[in-house]
Amino acid sequence: MKKLTFILAISLFLVQTSNAQMFQWGIKAGLGINSLKIADLTDIEDGSDVYDLVTGDNVMGYHVGFQTRINIAMIFIQPELYFNDGGAKIEEFRNDALEATYNVNFQRIDLPLLVGMKLGPARINLGPVGSYVVNESVSDDAQNIDPDYTFFSQSMTWGFQAGLGIDLSKLSLDVRYEGSLSSLGDEVTVGGADYQLDARPSQWLFSLGFWFK
Fold first, then answer.
1. How far out from the chain centre does Cα 63 lie?
2. Residue 73 to residue 159: CA distance in whole angstroms
3. Residue 67 neighbours by CB under 8 Å, 6+ apart
């Protein structure tokens, strides 16, 4: 009887410990290196002008939000939600001369759902990410550039994330690459002709997290 009671007590302790370690939640924040890759539009004729629209330099952004994790042995599922402020640069060349640089700034809500594997304190993970675009603004360094561009014509877009991480007690460090699976742009009309503006954002994410549990 004593042995049975002892076994039941140990089993209950292990179940409680397992449940406590199975679910984690915390906060995260970090920096992102953003770019907006477009299918370059070249040799577009507009009257006597010929111009190209091409991808420009990367832009630094930031993200902040929440992270959760469900642990199942060496495997884990990690849903997250965070606010992402990013940007990009698009360059416009007219007659082979740089006419304008478009500064694209966007704010969105990102919802990654990652699946990963633990290798000691290290982790590998990948999964889809849904992004809801809250706001987009486009400014340029020249006046009266025509046409006006909208690079995010869809409010909800889809992409993927993949990367590496490490857990140090309650701290988590992550490096991830995010790519796009959605075409964001719309048609743009120049000189009476329509052109498809296929804009796809990507970014490198460097994050620091803290687990409360």
1. 9
2. 27
3. 25, 26, 27, 28, 78, 80, 172, 209, 211
Domains of the chain: 24-211 (2.40.160.20)
Please write the tens of the pLDDT for every residue from 21-66.
Answer: 688 999 999 999 988 777 667 777 666 777 777 777 888 999 999 9
DSSP letters for 44-82 = EEETTEEEEEEE---EEEEEEEEEEEEEETTEEEEEEEE
Q: Which residues of 202-212 are buried (b: 16+ CB within 10 A; e: fewer)?
A: bbebebebebe
Residue 143: φ, ψ to 5°: -100, 145
For all residues of the chain together, what is the average pLDDT? Answer: 80
pTM: 0.77
